Amino acid sequence: MRSLFSLVFAFLFLAPATARQAVVIDAARAFDGTEMRANWRVVVEDGRITASGAQDATPAPAGARHVDLGNRTLLPGLIEGHSHVLLHPYSETGWNDQVLKESRAERVARAVVHVDRSLQAGFTTLRDLGSEGAEYADVGVRTAIRKGVIPGSDLIVAGRAIVATGSYGPKGFHPEVRVPLGAEPADGPDLIRVTRDQIGKGADFIKIYADYRWGASGQAAPTFSVEEIKSIVETAASSGRPVVAHASTEEGMMRAIHGGVETIEHGDSGTPEIFALMAREGVVWYPTLAAVESILSYGGWQKGVDPEPARIARKKAAFQAALAAGTEIGMGGDVGVYHHGENALEMELMVEYGMEPTAVLRATTSLNADTFHLADRGRLAAGLRADIIAVDGDPSRDIAAIWDVVWVMKAGDVVRDDQ
Ligand SMILES: [Zn+2]
Predict the structure, then answer these.
(1) CATH 3.40.190.10 fits 78-371, yes or no
(2) How far is the C-alpha of 212 from the C-alpha of 233, rounded, in Å?
């Protein structure tokens, strides 16, 4: 009797998961990952998109549930290219104090909140660029989301990230004081062991700091040699993992490109020549505009009131140079420096700095998916995972519409419905 009951009970729980009802989603517009379409329909079965096409040419499967999103715009689930779920805004707590004073438990508790906020904002996937002193907590949070333990965006994670000895923070202590660092130091031949160790502990990709603020006057200066970067790239490549680089100086960017990294983060001092080389080599740039503007505002700068700081003028010049060179520019804002869930800030700034809204939408969907080797998402296309969102208005006309998320589906499950 008891076993029969268990059997029936198990069936009740398993039935919806094994044979979920098909869902037909209609909307006035859809950005399919490449271009804007009118009167669009997406059909979802068992967590996958089975059709994406014009409403009058795409039949609904028998017995399907119908979701009519009216005058909304459908998009593929958005992909954040540069997050730190284990950080929270520096206006609340400075980076040093987060690394030195917040317990691992506190930081993980915050991350659990952050990944849910990100998902509710329509970002169904985040590429997370380092735990910043929280060891492999990012790997654990990623796994908990995959297992369905907590709601949140899918994560691909860097783990600890690699820095050259002596370059990274927290700094300012006398030499005998041992402090936990924001990333793992390694040099020379030891880089091979550390790269393999990070892979073994769950990193989806390897992040290095090709330069950092350790110059003679505290300015940013290169760290690893090209040979060191090549050894990291070659070691990671054996396991099928890419390497990405923090780099803001010309020399740091050049070494990272010649070393074989796939993406460059920040790139503030990028020149037309460097961006042309990136375009030729297929290296994608993540400019992190929102982090720069946020940090300046925490320092008292009032946008639209005070004169434009030199750092922003330089960033705008770099952005223009990259657009002119045809460099692929991905969407990644360094969210965590500012509030998780406010990822759209970077998209607005990309438009403000000179990119077409449709190109920004592409950067946040198909380009990010391709760059991160996520072949199962980033487009509304048959066969891909059903990560789909709807926003009020038309973000290809006014990018600000991307803030107005009303509906979110992740892998076929509706996780937000404000209709
Ligand atoms: Zn970052």
Answers:
(1) no
(2) 19
CA of 82 to the centre of ligand 1 (A): 6
- What's the confidence (pLDDT) of residue 15? 42
Query: Does pTM top 0.85 for this prediction?
Result: yes
CA distances from 83 to 15, 60, 252, 280 (A): 36, 38, 21, 27
Class of domain 2-76+379-417: mainly beta
Asked if residues 24 and 64 have their Cβ atoms less than 8 Å apart, the reply is yes
Contact (CB, 8 A) for 319 and 287 = yes
The pLDDT, as a whole number, for residue 13 is 43
User: What are the structural domain ranges in the chain?
Assistant: 2-76+379-417, 78-371
Whether the upstream peptide bond of residue 222 has omega within 30° of 0, thus cis, is no
Phi (first) and psi of residue 120, to 5 degrees = -65, -25
pLDDT tens sequence across 10-62? 444 444 444 579 999 999 999 999 999 999 999 999 999 999 999 999 999 99
Residues with CB under 5 A from ligand 1 (ion): 129, 334
What is the Å distance from ligand 1's center to 128 Cα?
Answer: 8
pLDDT one-digit tens code per residue, 202-212: 999 999 999 99
